[in-house]
């Protein structure tokens, strides 16, 4: 089943794949940014949410005062949640249906969020190079995704290790590009059950990276 078909099926059933609430790990990354540079909040800056899915993190960024581009590969998701957000009053979110490899912003971006963005096309270094081309000098990259350090049958995210993230690899790649790495670590994330009750699975392990592009 294609990514677009996944969303078509979920939308037809009135269901969500990821739910309405931001990931704890994304909240962690955003908190790190807000503590490092409080001036980025409520300043009308431009952020992109790469692989926006159902837009839960696009809404988070909008609530923090950003103008947001929600970039999503699935046409069904982009069309549906664009209308949902319009009805909810999120006029500052613009949905774009495009592969990240084919999209270029109209203006340099202030913040880029890549949350649980796992891909097979060229590896993370190729994606980081593309992301870098979108950012203004002094702009920020925020990343939160499934860690490669997970193991066992209850590991979360893609089953292919090359699609999972290694915070050391990402950090060193960004440093080679001249970025200041503000945070790079793996953090546990509890996995609630559908009922909200505690479960017996080990926590998921997420990679978080927050970095700033050199000013000059």
Automatic annotation (TrEMBL):
Q: Provide the organism lineage as a comma list.
A: Bacteria, Bacillati, Actinomycetota, Actinomycetes, Actinomycetales
InterPro entries, alphabetized: Methyltransf_25, SAM-dependent_MTases_sf
Enumerate the CDD domains for this protein: AdoMet_MTases (cd02440)
SUPFAM superfamilies in the cross-refs: S-adenosyl-L-methionine-dependent methyltransferases
**Would you tell me the protein name for this molecule?**
Methyltransferase domain-containing protein
Pfam families in the record: Methyltransf_25
Tell me which residues make up the Methyltransferase domain. Answer: 48-139
